[in-house]
Amino acid sequence: MNKGMFLAAVAATLGIFILTAGVASAQYPPPGDELTCNVNKIVLKVSDSGDVVAKLTDLSGKPISGELVYFQFVVTPGDAKLGTTSGVTNALGEVTVKVSSGNTAGTILVRAYSGEDSCQVLLTVVKDPIAQVLPSAPRTGDGGLIQEGGNASPLLYGGFFASILALGLGYWLLARSDGSVWRGPKR
């Protein structure tokens, strides 16, 4: 076996492996319920309050009622307070907690969790809201990683492209300088 044959065999093997590998979804737990967080104000003045709403839905987007959701501060600039540390979802799948900003400017990060589901929301506490540049609220959830409607994974398309590239590379490596192509061992 010469160098060209070896490289062609390796390229073909890699191409087949990539094409048939697919998505490694078995490594991850199946997606379950989703907990999302929203706020009515992303910027609070000192000594102000706002609401954090946690919403629990199933995979089809239907609200889940009667589930316990817990709230906690992840980051707080000082004497901020949560109105409650837990609540039960209503018919809309929502639990609302009041956040009091306290007397210190800074960032408040609130985490809501129920079972293995969790979400976080960021609030900014300012002394003078007119002088501040308003940040955009962070989005929670899957970040667009879960594809709906049975769309093929981009990994599958990438694997297909890599296989075609590997086959083309193997063909090129086997081509002879006189333009002929290797047709197998001579008998």
Protein architecture, described:
This protein is of the alpha+beta class. Helices cover 21% and strands 30% of the residues. It has helices at residues 3-21, 154-174, and strands at 34-39, 43-45, 49-57, 68-75, 81-82, 86-88, 94-100, 106-114, 117-126. It has a 5-stranded mixed β-sheet with strand order 2-9-8-4-6, with no helix packed on it. A 4-stranded antiparallel β-sheet has the order 1-3-7-5, with no helix packed on it. It is elongated. The two termini are 14 Å apart.
Would you summarize the structure shown here?
The chain has 187 residues and is an alpha+beta fold. It is built from 2 helices and 9 strands.
Any descriptors?
four-stranded antiparallel beta sheet, about 20% helix, single chain, about 190 residues, five-stranded mixed beta sheet, elongated
Overall geometric form? elongated
* Poorly predicted runs of 5 or more residues: 142-147
Question: What is the strand content?
Answer: 25-35%
* Helix percentage: 10-25%
Order of helices and strands: HEEEEEEEEEH
Structural class: alpha+beta
| Intertermini distance | 14 Å
Record the strand order, biggest sheet.
2-9-8-4-6
Quantity of strands, as a count: 9
Tally of helical runs: 2
Main β-sheet, in a few words? 5 strands, mixed
Mean pLDDT: 76
Q: Rounded to an integer, what's the Rg over CA atoms?
A: 28 Å
Q: What is the subunit organization of this protein?
A: single chain
